[in-house]
Protein 1
Amino acid sequence: MPSTPMTIKGAEALRAELQCLKSAERPKVIAAIAEARAHGDLSENAEYDAARERQGFIEGRIADIEVKLANAQVIDPKLLDAGGRCVFGATVDLDDGSGATMTYQIVGEDEADIKTGKISISSPIARALIGKYAGDPVAVQTPGGVKNYEILDVRYE
């Protein structure tokens, strides 16, 4: 399986979620299953079914996170010597031509959250930004047509 790029913060967030699932959520669902079993007939026990479904979700998420962490290539953008070039983990300020500026950090797919300005490395805008420098124009092909930006600044935070 290929390695998955991930920032240090993204890896820490996954580890924290894994720890929470294993130490808090898993024991809760096991207790809920035991309590539901105590109510008797399991064939018509909605509490038991819901607890088993929740257990399946938790165990699946634990397995998913463990695989992602095992295959993670953790990258610290501060340690990259990219010479002002836009690379994975970089924070980029863009001008859309109308005077509005946007700031995005290029992160792994699991870390992406547009509300906080984090875009996936596989997104069209991130693919267009990779390898560019401050001052470079960027044309991004979107479903709504081509969007043009200018890179104002590239930082490694």
Protein 2
Amino acid sequence: MVVIAGCIVRKGNKILMVKEGKKNCYGQWNYPAGHMEEGEKITDTAIRETFEETGCKVKLTGVLPILNDGPAILFKFTADIIEENITFDTNEILDVQWIDIDTIKNMSKEELRAYDINIAYLKALEENKIYPLEIFDDTEYLGK
């Protein structure tokens, strides 16, 4: 099973988005996100992936509903920007921009990666379906 985590970082009526450079989704916009590494906390994955893809440091503020996309479980966190320093690896990301929410809603399936899922996340955000971070138990259990 693949676990993917990322952030929806909002500033006013805009969301921080990345334009993908990978072959399977080349040129499509997406929220910054990526695969959880072995032994990594899901919350740390979201922060790390957002930083790696945008150069921005964020603080998680909540979690949106968890979704299943075939073999992947998707965790999308809401986050506030702590330090905005947009930089990115041009081998993986083509662009990083703050995009107006209405513009995202009006993107086509060709423009927005995982269209149905990303629109569902946007709808959950607008309906304030944001849950507390305390649902994640970050305790490390040594007696595995």
Protein 3
Amino acid sequence: MDREAWNQRYADAELVWSAEANRFLVQEVADLPPGRALDLGAGEGRNAIWLAERGWRVTAVDFSDIGLQKARRLAEARGVEVNWTEADLRSYSPAQSAFDLVVLVYIHLPGEERRALVRRAADAVAAGGMLLVLGHDRSNLEEGYGGPQDPTILFSPDDIIDDLAGIEEVRVVRADRVMRLVMTDDGERNAIDALVRAERRSSDDDHAPRSAA
């Protein structure tokens, strides 16, 4: 996870990723009432901008100043405001219990660094709020397509469950491997992602979760 390498990658292409939001994020949060959202590892801003377009008050964090410059331009072109924050996720500490939605999408770190980040992300979730973690699953190395080829930075749903263990009031409500269709020069291929959704209970045991599902 090298800042200058990502700066170069973002500088070398108009958009490294699609301008459209990640489809799994859309599926998981589309029915939530908008509130305060934190996008950790926002890159070029596609997910943060999608949330802002739907009324969320979004803070988006990334360590690439080039990526954030592109995100700001895209947000301006689409007529939304996002609080863009340049910071390294390995040391960034968001305010605790401050966000109704916290997302970590395709952020890959070695095990202990990942665990620390996931736990800080969970601590930032407000009562009744949601944490969404999505990334390339470890099984993608042998059974899927694309993604990082370093097994030390890949994870499974069970790894994220373990990362969250012992955090008071946080419960995992979904933990799955999900298939993502990728178009290649050789035709369609399947990539395998790990998806974990967790919610923080409110102090009222009868409080309904923010999810409409």
